[in-house]
Amino acid sequence: MTAPTPSAGPVAGGAPRRDILDRLDALRGTDLPVRGGRTMAYVYDSGLDGAEELAAAAQARFAGVNGLDMTAFPSVVALENAVVERAARLLGGGPDTAGTFTSGGTESCLLAVLTARERARRTRGVTAPELVLPTTVHAAFHKAAALFGLRTVSVPVDPVTYRVRPEDIAAAITPETALVVVSAPSYAHGVIDPVAEVAAEAGRRGVLCHVDACIGGWYLGHLRYADGLPQPSAFDLSVPGVTSLSVDLHKYGYTAKGASVLLFRDAELRRHGWFAHASWPGYPVVNATLQGTKSAGPLAAAWAVLEHIGTDGYTELSRRVHGATASLAAGIAALDGLRVLGRPEASLLAVASEDPALDVFVVADEIRADGWYLQPQPAFDGSPANLHLTVTAAVAGEETVRLLLADLAKAVERARALGPATVDPALAEAAAGLDPDALGPEEVGLALSLAGIGADGALPERMAPVLAVLQALPPRLTERLLPEVVGRLYRPEAGGPARAAESGPEEG
């Protein structure tokens, strides 16, 4: 019997191509939109015609290329060198700068911490490495500390500016400090830490200093080319004492997901984070990232989009984003009951309430009903509950900004009429006495049910009550419950439309 061609229909229980794509479209219909600027977190839209199609075409050409072995696929080396060189030129690198293309900001941050730990062990004899960081740094650094066995030393930030104070970082550095981290900007508030001053303090003590510019580096780097606009604070590798920097291309580089660059001051520093193994009967292994096998597709897509938009294109996109951010900040400040936290220098805004009768979590629910997603951020360490806005080029039109501000004003009025989401004080008091490490399934189930989450894991349509409960709980208890929430979503029996269609073997 002749084997059918791939387009001939289902084979041995397989589904037709059209049916598969229709099912994928149905699944996407349940998601937030990734184009148009209405989802103001997680996604980045340049608004440029053809950029997404170019990225998809480039990715398809390299989807099967394995970045594990550059000797077998030299194209990987050529593309990575080109992308890293471009990032280094933009972000203060010199002739000795070395870099690595990674799968995203989290992997870049993990590798920065791993590299610092290994260098501290090998060159300074540090046996109990510490990671000194402001309370505003991205969670990826706490993840790195947990994975790689470092003790975190969290330093509070100024309660008005939300920037860390250099003298506080200096006081936290010890002989065991492997790495100091600062943000440019911080995700939560969009402010740039005093990089030059902190890097100088670290350098005086022989400690590495990493700048997390994952979200802002590409935007801020190109903003410096825009004539007539305020220059961002110094933050890149040109700053004395800065030894590494991470920048994501799938954010303000507007490339396909899975694209970040980790830059080091030199190759000698970078090598401390590489893994090599020859003590087995297989092929010699050298890994520059946490991954072994990895598709070269995201790398090719990133290179293609960077080449296509170019320096002038990114500068213009940054100019547009700057204008939209300023307009939104001014418009939000004019709304009764809202204020922008800190003085953002980048394209991120944190919007809090000044009115006890106005709950920003309820505002988030209300404006989501109008087709916008503003990301809720719970209160923590002096930072009040707020809404996060990532402003991308797709937002940077007068009509889009006007519409967002108008819808936000209406959402504020509806939220004020509804009143804040409340938490039973007795519940909060009882929860404060729980030991997160001793919770059994019944206690977890009860706690989640009080937050409005049932055994099936389905999240309620309105999230303000859930967020209010989680915010009222001690952080360690919240961290114990969050994996339970997500774990209930990831169940094989919950596959829904994505589950493979039931069918018997093809006749023939």
TrEMBL record:
Transmembrane segments: none annotated. The modification N6-(pyridoxal phosphate)lysine is found at K251. Its cofactor is pyridoxal 5'-phosphate. GO terms for biological process: carboxylic acid metabolic process. It comes from the Bacteria. Keywords: Aminotransferase, Lyase, Pyridoxal phosphate, Transferase. GO terms for molecular function: aromatic-L-amino-acid decarboxylase activity; pyridoxal phosphate binding; transaminase activity. Belongs to the group II decarboxylase family. Sphingosine-1-phosphate lyase subfamily. This is Aspartate aminotransferase family protein. The lineage of its organism: Bacteria, Bacillati, Actinomycetota, Actinomycetes, Kitasatosporales.
